[in-house]
Amino acid sequence: MGEYLSQRKKISVSSIRQSKEKSKKISMVTCYDATFAHLVNQANIDVVLVGDSLANVVLGHTSTVKATMSDMLHHGAAVSRSIQTAHICVDMPFMSYRISPSETLKNAMRLVQAGGAESVKVEGAVTSMIATLTAADVPVMGHLGLTPQSIHSLGGYRVQGRAAAAARKIVEDAKRIEDAGAYALVLEMVPAELAQEITQSLEIPTIGIGAGAYCDGQVLVLYDLLGLNPDFNPKFLKKFANLGHQVVDALNQFQHEVQHGSFPSACHSFAQKREIKDNQAVACE
User: Fold this and answer.
1) Per-residue model confidence as pLDDT tens digits over 133-173
2) How far is CA 49 from the centre of its chain?
């Protein structure tokens, strides 16, 4: 495995853009900590997004609005320490890129320098801020459709762009985001036909979540695709494992063995005097 990883090349913004030209689908997962990042690093994932969804998934809040710059810096740095090949994109949290160009640049600089970001993601058609960042050589990923940081104004987590006027605005915003210099665009919870139209109209790749199969790539939250929360079952989610049940089973087994004295056994214990060699020690089953 180590030799295999050493032969893989670091995925750059350029290679992500070229994926569309080569008709190569992009895989992206959100990740928030070093342990999971270490596992992701052993897979063939193209992009790791340190998402502000950590506010919900890791910190227990009800909205991504609660994620702070400190949160994103802390978790971005943790993930970046374990990722060697995938491209690392970090969300700019709520209001960190809407106040002024100088504040936007300052926050993006912190995410790159201290948070391990190789690019940043912003929500909405904030084209002036995207242009400001790209002019300063900070690569930007856009995000349209359901934009969770705007959940209060959107009125809930619902599909966007079903009405003709709303769909047309998303199409126009997507083009404006591309023209502002973004290298990719996330489309979240929009009709598949609308995502197809946008994907075909842009030169930059689209990455969908709840946006159908026509996007140039797909993203899911790592915890969700692993089935770590059995109660979370949105229509767009496919669970590629059911680890939540396995975790509960493992914890119950641990409690049972502790309660009945079968753990720890001799193989998990240390003797006062070591009278046998390591290769003759009691082996654990």
Assistant:
1) 999 999 999 999 999 999 888 878 899 999 999 999 999 99
2) 3
Write down the domain spans for the chain. 2-241, 246-280
pLDDT exceeds cutoff 80 at 281: no
The pLDDT tens digits for 43-88 are 999 999 999 999 999 999 999 999 999 999 999 999 999 999 999 9
Cis peptide before 264, with omega less than 30 degrees from 0? yes
Query: Which residue bears the tokens 């609660």?
Result: 66
119 beta partners = 89
Query: What would the CATH number be for the domain defined by 2-241?
Result: 3.20.20.60
pTM, whole model, 2 decimals?
Answer: 0.93
- Residues noted as catalytic: 188
Rounded CA separation 108/91 (Å): 10
